[in-house]
Design a protein that fits this description.
3 helices
């Protein structure tokens, strides 16, 4: 495991240096809940498997269903309060 983390760390450093040379907007990107979004994530950013857990088990970082969506189809969820009703429903029209 140490070799794997070391290799992942080296890849992360190389990718970070490469991204530093690329031009990027100066905006700070966040999720809708305000969590910052990094420009690049690699294996080095992952928590240990013990912290992640298994699918369908707390803390649900790998999904709420043990079989993920192989046994159930995706459901369409909506956010309330964003734009007009016509604008929201236009995205769901088939």
């Amino acid at each position: 495991m140490t070799v794997r983390r070391s290799c992942a760390s080296n890849l992360h450093v190389a990718a970070t240096e490469e991204r530093a040379r690329a031009q990027e907007r100066k905006d700070h990107f966040t999720t809708m809940s305000g969590e910052p979004i990094e420009a690049l994530y690699t294996e080095a950013d992952l928590p240990s498997p013990e912290q992640i857990g298994r699918p369908g088990q707390y803390p649900f970082t790998r999904g709420v269903y043990e079989s993920m969506y192989r046994g159930r189809l995706w459901t369409m969820r909506q956010f309330a309060g964003f734009g007009t009703a016509e604008r929201r429903t236009s995205g769901f029209a088939t």
